[in-house]
Amino acid sequence: MAIDLSYDPVVQDVIDKTSEFVRSHVLPIEEKFAGDIAAAGGDELRLELRDRARDLGILAPHAPVEYGGLGLNMSDRSPVFEAAGYSVFGPIALHIGAPDEGNVHMLAHVADAEQKEKYLAPLARGDVRSAFAMTEPAPGAGSDPAALRTAAVKVDGGWKINGDKWFITGADGAGFFIIMARTAGEPGDRGGATMFLAPADTPGITVGRHINTIDRAMIGGHCEVAFRDVFVPDEDVLGEVDEGYRYAQVRLGPARMTHVMRWMGSANRARDIAIDYVARREAFGGKLGDLGMIQQMVADNEIDLAAARSLLVKACWVLDQGGHGGDETSIAKTFAAEAFSRVVDRSIQMCGGMGVSDDLPLARLQRELRPFQIYDGPSEVHRWALAKRAVGKARKAAAAGGKP
Amino acid sequence: MAIDLSYDPVVQDVIDKTSEFVRSHVLPIEEKFAGDIAAAGGDELRLELRDRARDLGILAPHAPVEYGGLGLNMSDRSPVFEAAGYSVFGPIALHIGAPDEGNVHMLAHVADAEQKEKYLAPLARGDVRSAFAMTEPAPGAGSDPAALRTAAVKVDGGWKINGDKWFITGADGAGFFIIMARTAGEPGDRGGATMFLAPADTPGITVGRHINTIDRAMIGGHCEVAFRDVFVPDEDVLGEVDEGYRYAQVRLGPARMTHVMRWMGSANRARDIAIDYVARREAFGGKLGDLGMIQQMVADNEIDLAAARSLLVKACWVLDQGGHGGDETSIAKTFAAEAFSRVVDRSIQMCGGMGVSDDLPLARLQRELRPFQIYDGPSEVHRWALAKRAVGKARKAAAAGGKP
Amino acid sequence: MAIDLSYDPVVQDVIDKTSEFVRSHVLPIEEKFAGDIAAAGGDELRLELRDRARDLGILAPHAPVEYGGLGLNMSDRSPVFEAAGYSVFGPIALHIGAPDEGNVHMLAHVADAEQKEKYLAPLARGDVRSAFAMTEPAPGAGSDPAALRTAAVKVDGGWKINGDKWFITGADGAGFFIIMARTAGEPGDRGGATMFLAPADTPGITVGRHINTIDRAMIGGHCEVAFRDVFVPDEDVLGEVDEGYRYAQVRLGPARMTHVMRWMGSANRARDIAIDYVARREAFGGKLGDLGMIQQMVADNEIDLAAARSLLVKACWVLDQGGHGGDETSIAKTFAAEAFSRVVDRSIQMCGGMGVSDDLPLARLQRELRPFQIYDGPSEVHRWALAKRAVGKARKAAAAGGKP
Amino acid sequence: MAIDLSYDPVVQDVIDKTSEFVRSHVLPIEEKFAGDIAAAGGDELRLELRDRARDLGILAPHAPVEYGGLGLNMSDRSPVFEAAGYSVFGPIALHIGAPDEGNVHMLAHVADAEQKEKYLAPLARGDVRSAFAMTEPAPGAGSDPAALRTAAVKVDGGWKINGDKWFITGADGAGFFIIMARTAGEPGDRGGATMFLAPADTPGITVGRHINTIDRAMIGGHCEVAFRDVFVPDEDVLGEVDEGYRYAQVRLGPARMTHVMRWMGSANRARDIAIDYVARREAFGGKLGDLGMIQQMVADNEIDLAAARSLLVKACWVLDQGGHGGDETSIAKTFAAEAFSRVVDRSIQMCGGMGVSDDLPLARLQRELRPFQIYDGPSEVHRWALAKRAVGKARKAAAAGGKP
C-alpha cells in the first residue's frame, strides 16, 4: 500500500492502441461527417468500427472477460475511455458509449445467469444496443428521481407497465430497454422502484420523437418513449422488486465517471486544436501563442484538464475499492463538466473567427460538451447533495461535542 | 446639466411601439422558422417586415431624417435597438442590423452629396443591403487592422483594387460594398488605408463561400469575397485617400455599441424564458424558482444585464457628446459580450434538459451570442487597448512627478 | 428629458476641490498613520479635518443647506463622496462617513422640527457623532431584520427599552443613538418596529467591547451596546410608532449607495497604486505593465470600476426621482462590493511581494473593502431579494397569460 | 503497477497522531495567541512543541532517518503536513515549516558528509533554524531568478559575498544561511549562480528590518538581509560552483508542494469553521446550512479542496518517481493557491459579520493564505511557464508534421 499512479503495461498497451486507432482511423472518418455527426454516423458504421476495434483487441475494455471484454476496472478503463473520446466516434467504435456502457456495467452486477445470457451477452458483443428508461417529463422523475410516475402493477406471471419517458438516450434502434418503474409508494417517495428488462419489440413500447438537443453525437438520439400496458414476465425483473433505486446507484456513480472519461477526450482535442492554432498563427508582430493573454488561456486549459483528471482518478479508485463514492463522483462530475465547457470556450476564443466557424470542430465540440453540466444530474443537484452531506457531518460532530 | 436617465416621450413612444411590434408580429414569425433562422428568413421576408415597420413609424431610427429615418442619436436609439433585438428578426425588420446600420452611420458622416444620393438613400430606405469589406484571412487584417493587405493602386480616373476578404457580413445579396484597401505603406503600418464604394455588380467582385459560423441569423451570411482588378472611379472614393483608418474608427465605435444594443435584446429574451420556466416548474417539493441556487442565477442575470446596460448608456452619451469613446466603448463591448454569454448559459442551466433542447430557443440564442466575444474585436484586443491607455497615463503622471 | 451624464459646474467644483483636498492634505496625514488607521485617527483629528473641509466649502455635501450642508442630491453627492473615499480618512474629513451620513439623511426626512434642532443640527455640523442601533447578535436582527428582539414597552410619558445590539458602528464616542426596537408583534414578524432617539448618556445605555473586524477605519468602531430599562420620552420617538421598518428603508437604500461611493474611492486608489507600480517596475526584460497577463488585470480593473460606477449612477438617479430603487440599489451594492474586492485583489497580485507588504497600502485597503460584501446586507440576501422580485413578476405575467 | 491511493499503515499512524496532536495540543495553544500569532509564538514555544512532537514520534517526517526524521517521501509526507497545517503552529511543532523543511530537503540531496554533520544534523533535530537567501529587491532576483545581483568573488581559500536580499523568511533568529550568489555571468543570464552555507554570526551578515506582510505566522519573519564582504570558505560551498540554479530547482519543486500541503490544512480549517457555523446558525426561519446559496458555497469548498489535493497527490508522485515535475508542481501550486483563497473567502462570507471579526480565526487565515498566490512564484509566472511548454510542444509536433 502506497501511492501509485502508474498503469500496468497491459493496460498501457490498450491505451496506446486506442489512441493510435482513434487518430489514424476514427478521426479521418469523423472528419468526413464534419457538420453532420448526428448519431455518430449510424449503426452500419458502428458495426464496421466495432469489428476493427475487436480485431485490435481494444473492444469493450469495461465488459467482463467472459463476455468478450477486457475486464478493466474503473481506474484502468479511465485512460482508455479518455483516449477513445478524442473523437466523438471513438466511444462508438470501442462500444463504450452511453448508455450501453453503463448498462453492461449494471447487468454484470445485478442480472442473473439467464438474464446475462439473454441480454448481457449480445450487448457486450455490440450486436445490439440498449436504452435505460428512467427520466420522465415534468412532473415526473428528472433531477429528482423520487418523482417517478411510470408504474408497474403485478399481474399473473409478471408485471404490467404504464408511463411516459423522455430523454431516453439511444432508444431509437435499441434492442432492449431497462425500464425503471414504481412498484410501491407514491411519486415523491424515495422507494418502491423496480427495474425491468424488455426487448424493444415488446408490445406496448413505442419510441416517439427525438428531442433535438445541442449535442448530436449520441447514436439512437434522446427520445420520448411511451409504455402502454407493457407486459414483463417475472423472470425479466432485474434484481429484486422495490430495489430499483439501489441498483440505479450501482449504475449512476460509475456511469457519471465514464461520461467524464469520454468527454475528457473531447476537451483534450479542443485544447490541442487551439494550441496548434496559436502556435502557428501570427498577429501583432509575433505568434499568438507568445501573447500573455493567450498564454493565460493555454495555462488555464492545462490546469482545468489536470484537475478534472486527478479528481477522476480519485473517484475511480474509490469505486474500485467498493466504496459508494457519492462525494467523489459528484465532485469529479461537477468539476469536470464545468471545466470541459471552460476549456472548449477558451479554445474557441483563442482561435478567433475560426473558432466560431465550421472550419474548426471547436463549436461542434462545445455543443457536445455543454449538456454534461445538466446530464447525469445538473451541477446544482450534485452541489446540493455534497452540501447536505457535509453539513450533516458537521451537525453530527457538533452534537457529539466536537468543534472545528 | 445634471444627471438625467429618462427618455423624451417621443423616443419612449418609439421604444414602446418597437417592443409591441416585435412581440406581437416578429416573434411569431421567428417561431415559425424555429431551428432554421438562417439569414433571418431571407430578403423577401425582410422587405415585408420593413414595410410593416415603416408603416408603424419605427423604421431606421438611426438614419438621418432627410433619408427617411428617425434621426435618433446613440443614446436614444439604444433602447429602441434593444427592444428590436428581442427577436433575432427584429433588427432586420427595423433595418438596423449589422452591417447596414453601421454603413448608414458612416455614409451619413463621411459621404459627399452625390455618394449620399447614390448609396445612402437606397440603403437608408432598405431597398438594398450593403457590406463592409475590411477583414482579411491570415496573415491579413483581422484583430490587427494594420495588417491590411488588400491593395488599391492609382490608375487613370480611379483605383484598381486587388485582394481577398473574409467574414464579410451580409455580402451575399448586398447591393454595394464599402472596401477597405491599402493605398500607402506596407502591411503592419497603421496608416495608408482608403475606403472605396462599389456596386456589387462591379466587374472583379466575387462573393465566395459562406463561412459557416455558429451564429446563423445574419442576412447575407459571413462570406469570402475576392477583389480582382476591381476598378473604382475617383468619385467613389469615400472621404479622403489614406484616411481609411480614421473613418473606420467613426464606424467602429458606434457599431460596437449597436451590437451591444441588439444582443442585449437577445440576452433579455433568454433571461425571460428562463425565469418563466423556473417560476412554473416544480421539483424537490416546490418551484425551481424558489431554490437558492436558482435564485442566485436569476439574480446574477439581473446584475449582468443591468451592468451591461449602464455601461452602454455611458458609452453612447460620450459618443453623442462628440467624444472618441475609446475606453467607454471597449469597456461596454467587452463586459456586455461576456455578460450576454453568461446570461444565456445560466438561462440554459436553469431550464435543465429543456435548456439544451430545441424545445426552447435558448441553445439557438447561445449560438447567436457567443461570437460577440470575438466579433468587433476580441475581448483580448479590447483589454489590451484599455490597459495600454491606462498604463500610458500612469507613465505620464509618474514622469510629471505625480504619485497615486 | 434626455440622457445627460454631466454635472453642474457648481457640483464639479465641489468634486475638484474634494479631490485636491484629499490628495494634498488628507492622504499625507493618512500616511503618517500607516499601519494604524484605527478609528481614522480619532475625534481630535476628525475635528481638525472637519474645520478644514468647512473652510473649503466642501463639508457635509449631503446635509440640508439650512443645517450647513451643500444639499446635494444622491446623483450629485456621488462623485464627491467617491473623491473623498480616495483616503479612508476622507469621509471623516467631509463628515460623510457611516453611520452619520445616513443618520443625517434619515433625520432630515423623518424628524420633527424639535428633533431636528436637538439632534440633526449638531450632527450636521459634525459637533457630535451618532450611531444607528439596529443589528443584534444571533438569534436577533441581522441579515433578517424581522428577527428584531430588542423591545420597547409603553410607560408613562414614553417608552422603556431593553435589549442587546452589536456591530453598532460608531457607538464608542457617539453623542446619541437611533434605536430600533420592537413595539408590536413577535420576533419573526415583519412589522411593529419603532425608532427612538436617545442621547448617549441616557441611563441604561452601555457601550461594550469593540468587535474587532478586519476593517479598522471606522471611527467609534463596531461595538456591542446594551440597553437596560432605557427611558425614551414620547417626544423622542422618531416618526410614527410601529413604522420603524418603513423608515429603515428610507435610510438603507441611500446608505447602501453612499457606501458604494466611498469605497469606490478606495478601489480607485488600489487601482492607481497598482498601475503606477507596473508602469515602472522592470522584469523579464521589460516593464510589468507591458505583459499580457498584467494588462488583463489592468483592464479588468477598469471594467469593474466603470461598471460599478455606472450602476451607482443609475441607482442614485432612481432614488432622486423618488423611486424605491430596491432592485437598482441591490444590484449596484452587490456588484460593487464584489467588484471592489476583485479590484484590490488584482492590485495586490500586480504588485507581487510588495502587494502583500505594508510597504504599500493595498493589503490595508483589502481589509477595508472585504466586509462590504457582508455589511449592509450580504450579497446573498440582495441576490435573494432580486430573484424573489424577478420570479414574482414572471409569475404574475404568466398568470395574466403572458409568455416570454 | 496499478492505481493505488492508499497509505501504508505506518504512514497512516503518523497522520492520525499528527491530527490528534494538533487538535488536542496545538490548537488550544494557538487560540491563546489569538490575534497575535506573530512568529508562531517564538522560539521558546517552538522548542517545547518540538519536544512534544518528538516524544510522539512525529517530528520531522520528511528528514532522513539517519538524522532523526521519519524519511517519508513526498507522497507520504503530504497528508502528514496537511494534518499539521490545520493549525498555523502545527508546522512549527513538527519542524516542517518553511524554509527549514526545504533546506533539510536540499541539504540531504546536495550537501557533502561534513556539511551534513555541521549544518543538516542540528537543523534536522530542530536545534537551530535556517534561512534561504535568494530573493532580492528590485531590480534583482524576484519572480525572475535570472536577475540575480548578489555576487560572490573568488578569494584565497573561499569566496567573498556582497549583496542585498529581502523577503528572507526565517532570517531573524536563523542559525545559518544558504546564500544564492552570482559567480559567473551578468544579471539577466540564467546561469552562473552558486549556493553558499554560512553561520548567521559570520561577519558581514546583517539581518535588517522585518518586511511586514499580511501573513504573520512565519517564525523569523520575512527580513531584509545585507551581505557585506562575507567570507565563505571553500568547504562551505554547497554542491558545485555555478550550479546554483540547478540545486534551486531541486529545492523549489518540492518546497512548492510542501507549501500546498501545509496551507491545505489551513484551508481545511476555514472550511470546517464555516460549515460548523452554518450548520448551527438560524436565520430566515431555518438553518443557514439549508439555504441553497450557502449550500453552493459549501459544495464549492469541497470541490476546490478535493481538486487541490488530487493535483498535489499527482505532483508528489511524479517527484517521487524522480521526475522533474515542472508542469505538475506548477499546476498544483497555482490551482491550490487560488483555491485556498477562494475557500477562505467563501468561509468568511458564510459566517457573515462573525466572518470578518476576530471572534473567528477566518480573517486571520485569509491573511496567511492570500500571499501564497505570490510566494514561490506568482500565479502569472507559473501560467507563463506552463503555456511556454505547452505551446513549445505544439510547435515541435507541428514541425514534425503532426496535427491535432
UniProtKB/TrEMBL annotation, chains A, B, C, D:
InterPro entries noted in UniProt: Acyl-CoA_dehydrogenase (IPR050741), Acyl-CoA_DH_CS (IPR006089), Acyl-CoA_Oxase/DH_mid-dom (IPR006091), Acyl-CoA_Oxase/DH_mid-dom_sf (IPR046373), AcylCo_DH-like_C (IPR036250), AcylCo_DH/oxidase_C (IPR009075), AcylCoA_DH/ox_N (IPR013786), AcylCoA_DH/ox_N_sf (IPR037069)
GO CC field: cytoplasm
Acyl-CoA oxidase/dehydrogenase middle domain ranges (all copies): 131-230
Keywords from the named record: FAD, Flavoprotein, Oxidoreductase
Acyl-CoA dehydrogenase/oxidase N-terminal domain span: 14-127
Metal-binding recorded as keyword: no
GO molecular function terms listed in the Swiss-Prot or TrEMBL record: acyl-CoA dehydrogenase activity; flavin adenine dinucleotide binding
Subunit architecture: Homodimer.
Name this protein carries in UniProt: Alkylation response protein AidB-like acyl-CoA dehydrogenase
